[in-house]
Amino acid sequence: MKTLKVVFILFCCALIFFELYILRNSKNTAEPSETETEAETETEAEMEVEIESYSIPLVNLLLDENETETEIETEAESEPPTEETELIPKNVPIFMYHTSSEDNPGDLTELYVKPSEFEKQVQYLIENGYTLCTFDDYNNLNNIDKPVFLTFDDGYKENYTEIFPILKKYNVKITVFLMLDHIKDSNITLDMIVEMSNSGLVKFESHTISHPDLAVISSNETLLIEELENSKMQIEEITRKPVVAIAYPNGKFNDAVKEKCSEFYSFGLRSDLGMHNTEYDPFEVRRLRVNRNTSLDGFISSLG
Asked: Is residue 206 part of a domain?
């Protein structure tokens, strides 16, 4: 009996030791050692650093791509179509005006076309099937039967007070080549410019900042770029529309001017030589001058 008790006690002890052994092993399996934990932590940290080292440039790349897409979308919304379709040779009358007054012209009387005469000219164009265009339409001239351009240089206040009401009355378009310094000199305001631009009837293009002789300053590249690029940028900032053309002040230019203009614009306009043709150099666009003494018959004969 005593022997059985000893055997039973030994069996219980063995059972206890066996359970402790199983419990210890299960704990070791469930809870890794400190060394293993540190190794795993280091591995995870290395992975995080590695992920960060790749993800940061990737984020930047995505941002760059998104910014580029935004820029492209903005340009696509604002810029005129730039299809590479070759233009069919066609005569295009491009008239050059400056400002307007019925009875009280300024010092340069010949520049002040009478509003009543301008209205007669517009009426004739409409009644005879002409389409009044801006340079946003130039690349689409193959599809326009009788295009004509009415352009105004400098940016006088009278473009707003005298000409703009006629444009709204007949729903026709003109181009104003804006000289930035002329804004303060002529009393035209930014609000007037924005209103005309937003109407869709007046497209503002560049006439430089200070109206210099571009041929004379062409040897000074810094000054030339300031007159060409800065005027474009400022007008675009005011109107929120792309500037694609420049009218050379007093029609003065040379090859260096044309080359530099081609970096910022698609067209450069002269102030002489008469009828333009689409096969001519786009940086030597010809114009027909309209003065105060231009009669309606004279205007009609210029149409060719």
From this structure: yes
State whether residue 6 is helix, strand or coil.
helix
Report residue 128 CA to chain centroid gap: 34
Taking Cα atoms as reference points, which of 300, 301, 299, 274 lies closest to residue 285?
Answer: 274
Residues 192 and 275 placed together within one structural domain of the fold: yes
| Amino acid occupying residue 62 | L
**Model confidence over 70-83: pLDDT tens digits?**
342 334 344 444 44
Q: Domain span at residue 37?
A: 32-77
- Residue 56's pLDDT is 31
pTM of the predicted structure, to 2 decimals: 0.73
What is the C-alpha separation between 276 and 87, in angstroms, rounded?
Answer: 13
- Could you tell me if 16 and 151 lie in one domain? no
CA distances from 207 to 90, 97, 180 (A): 26, 13, 8
284 and 230: one domain? Answer: yes
The pLDDT score that the predictor gives to residue 182 is 85
Please report the pLDDT score of residue 32 as a whole number: 45
Q: Do residues 55 and 121 both lie within one domain? A: no
Within 13 A of 212's CA, how many CA atoms are on the CB side?
A: 17
DSSP 125-140: HHHTT-EEE-TTSGGG
Q: Which residues of the chain have pLDDT under 70?
A: 1-84
| Dihedral sign of CA atoms 239, 111, 182, 135 in order | positive
Answer yes or no: is 55 within a domain.
yes
Task: Tell me the β-bridge partners of 185.
Answer: none
Q: Which two tokens stand for residue 212?
A: 């210099």
Tokens in use for 300? 């009609």
- pLDDT at position 175, please? 98
Shared-domain flag, residues 127 and 196: yes
Name the β-bridge partners of 245. Answer: 267
Q: What's the confidence (pLDDT) of residue 184? A: 81
The two counts, helices (H) then strands (E), for the chain are: 12, 12
Q: Is residue 82 part of a domain?
A: no
